[in-house]
Amino acid sequence: MEQKWLTWAKEIQAIAQTGLAYAKDVYDIERYQALRELSVDILADYTFESKEKIRLAFAGEEGYSTPKVDVRGVIFRDEKILLVREKLDGHWALPGGWADIGLSPREVAVKEIAEESGFQAEALRLLAVLDKKFHHHPPEPYHVYKMFILCRITGGAAAEGVETNGVAFFAEDELPELSEERNTREQLRIMFEYLRNPEKPVILD
């Protein structure tokens, strides 16, 4: 479960963002700006990120505050799962990233697989929609839903991408060090359950 301080900081930020989107009175605007700064202070103290970096992240968020969506492509081959090594931290993750405006979740999964692994793929079915706050990810300022989509390779070959410098398949008992901001060991265990039981229903968590 997500720590309470992180939940509170996100809720304060959401109230501030929504308030700034609709407030007309100058005093109300000042109060919402003060709330946003309070959430920045909380996150900076607990995550060790700089206040400036957090402010810049929040500055790009406007309008009614809603969760962000992260889409991950899940591919199995020979009882192993496809992972890519992230340049940012040197650890491994399912290919994926933020959902793009104008693309469906299916299209995002296929695009991210191509860009990060070199493989062309076809999206087959949704496996899970998980709320990051329930899954022991490192603290971050956003409320995030993660979508895991089963795909199959249709072409291409393993190749590094702009954000990745490794592509490999791993057995469940031989997983490398994972990029836990992107996916946890428990989430990959859930994905392997779908390999063993293709009829397993979609998980909503």
From TrEMBL:
Q: Domain Nudix hydrolase: where?
A: 66-192
Q: Keywords of this protein's UniProt record, alphabetized?
A: Hydrolase
Q: Which GO terms describe its molecular function?
A: hydrolase activity
The prosthetic group or cofactor this protein requires is: Mg(2+)
> Does the keyword Hydrolase feature in the UniProt annotation?
yes
Supply the name of the protein: ADP-ribose pyrophosphatase
What is the organism of origin for this protein? Paenibacillus riograndensis
